[in-house]
Amino acid sequence: MKRILDTGNAACALAVKAAKVDMVAAYPITPQTSVAEKLAAYIAEGEMDAKYLPVESEHSVMSAVSAAAAAGARTFTATSSQGLLYMHEILHYAAGGRLSLVMANVNRAICAPWCLYVDHQDAVSQRDTGWIQLFAATTQEIYDSVILAYKVTEEINIPVMVNYDGFLLSHSMMPFEIVDQEIIDGFLPPFSPAWRLHPQWGGTFGNVTPSDQYPPYRNSLAADIVKAGEIIEKNAREYQRLTGHWHGGLFDIYRPEGAEVFLLSMGSMAAEMELAVDILREEGVPAAGLRLRVFRPFPARELCRILPGGARLLVFDRNHAFGTGSGALLSEAKAALFDRKDVIKVTGQVMGLGGEDLPAAYLVQKAREMMGVLK
Amino acid sequence: MLEMRIHGRGGQGVVTLAELLAKAALKTGKEVQTFPFFGVERRGAAVKAAVRFDSQPIKVRSLSYWPDILVLMNENLLSLGLADGIAPGAFIVANGEKRLPVDNKQYLVDAAFIALNNDLTFGGEPYINVPMFGALCRVMDIPLDIVGETITEQWGAKKAVPNIAAAREAYEAVRELEGGGAHA
């Protein structure tokens, strides 16, 4: 294995190449653009044996990769922000159609007002499309998550979105290890779906369905996505066995020993949160970091299992769940903990919107405010 | 952790300079991170990038407020650089000839002259990021052979020749000065 220095977008493109994707369709949008550029270059220069389809919009991108996946191709696309929103209709189609798809979403704020920098509103607003959503915090985790995403989507036939923060991860360079091709080939054999569209075999896809037949399709997606957590964890363990790379299960827990105050967040802010936890620990606060790696399906059972009785949970949301008075992670966490018989105190704040900088000292200050609220 | 913040103008190769420094430091066994700040992406606009060096993996995912080293691609970026903050005892590395009017320890190199001297120009403008790379490697005690190796890996053997020459010239020419009095 070789250790190199490059951006998060480069790590993403290298993983897509290593996954031996058959087809890429993409439409450029900041900060995703260099992923599309690198893949276009790999394909044009013959480094990657794949078709690159430049289309006129993200709606067409998602339609194209969905159609290719239905025909049995291993596909990839990447987008950000408004691009993801423009895909919305077909995101439902891809998940409902139980297509194996991987997409990188380079997180960026939503307009209005117009903004190029990171928050998680784009991904969170696609929460109920039926996609699995992973969040990374390092370039290495971006690389590994893309490979893992193919394994998961091809096992469970539910599309996977790999999220990573715009600029803070997409354009920042950090060292990461490229996994040997033989190891990846062993982990990720060629895509051979149980069913696919083929002109000689007939069959239809996504046809008009009467009311008595429609619910089982939707209900099976709802049931299966809940099982995806186990499949993600199982395959992450297998990947660890082959590569030594491990970023955590559904949560990555930092300093859990004797912890009573848990700081929950996702994306790049969760890496900085470890520095905040160190500061709080030095001050005598029994703090731990809870980095959410899998936003969809939300790992409710794991959250209940991790938190000891009497724990305080502080939630740092980089998004709004409009109408709830908070962010999505706080709503999810509260719902997950509702059935706990003992008392767990939970509060949260929304911060870091549109790239608002979140240094550790600021996160500590916010943690103190939240602990004050819970007193 | 050692933190550096580079101030320059769009088109001067600030992002590439950050990349070269991180790659060279990685070769010495350091953990590194480049953290460019993208504002208005056009030639001449003020741009900045942080580079972080440490003995362990870097967890910071926020901007640079207290850099230990402030790098100015031109001496006239001093006020802009200081306005963004520096660590107590920070030193400054600048492209220029004149002692900067601040108390900080400073390293000066005439990177523009060195670039012109080695035909590193584009549209008549000198490419100063490679001489700055050489000077900064000297300041950070990164050996000269790693400077050459990094440049060769970045641009290939042929293109590396004038770049290595410029980097070497700056490596040797950079001079250390004590502070020159209060900031004007």
Describe the structure.
The complex is a heterodimer of chains A (about 375) and B (about 180). With about 375 residues, chain A is an alpha/beta fold. Chain A has two domains: about 240 residues, Thiamin diphosphate (ThDP)-binding fold, Pyr/PP domains (Rossmann fold); about 120 residues, 3-Layer(aba) Sandwich (Rossmann fold). Chain A is about 40% helix and about 20% strand. Chain A is globular. Chain B is an alpha/beta fold and about 180 residues long. Chain B has one domain: Pyruvate-ferredoxin Oxidoreductase, domain 3, CATH 3.40.920.10. Chain B has six helices and nine strands; from the N terminus they run βαβββαββαββαααβ. In chain B, the strands form two sheets. A seven-stranded mixed beta sheet of chain B has the order 2-3-1-4-5-6-9. In chain B, strands 7-8 form a two-stranded antiparallel sheet. Chain B is globular, with a radius of gyration of 15 Å. The N and C termini of chain B lie far apart (about 30 Å).
List the helices and strands and how they pair.
The complex is a heterodimer of chains A (375) and B (184).
Chain A: E1 2-7, H1 8-18, E2 23-26, H2 33-44, E3 51-54, H3 58-70, E4 75-79, H4 81-86, H5 88-96, E5 102-107, H6 121-124, E6 132-135, H7 139-156, E7 160-165, E8 173-178, H8 181-187, H9 214-243, E9 251-254, E10 261-265, H10 269-282, E11 287-292, E12 294-296, H11 300-306, E13 312-317, H12 328-337, E14 345-350, H13 360-374
Parallel strand pairs in A: 2-3, 2-4, 4-5, 5-7, 6-7, 10-11, 10-13, 13-14
Antiparallel strand pairs in A: 1-8, 6-12, 9-11
Helix pairs in contact in A: 1-2, 1-7, 3-5, 7-9, 10-13, 11-12
Chain B: E1 2-9, H1 14-27, E2 31-37, E3 46-54, E4 69-72, H2 78-83, E5 91-95, E6 106-109, H3 111-117, E7 121-122, E8 125-126, H4 129-139, H5 144-155, H6 157-173, E9 175-177
Parallel strand pairs in B: 1-4, 4-5, 5-6
Antiparallel strand pairs in B: 1-3, 2-3, 6-9, 7-8
Helix pairs in contact in B: 1-4, 1-5, 3-4, 4-6, 5-6
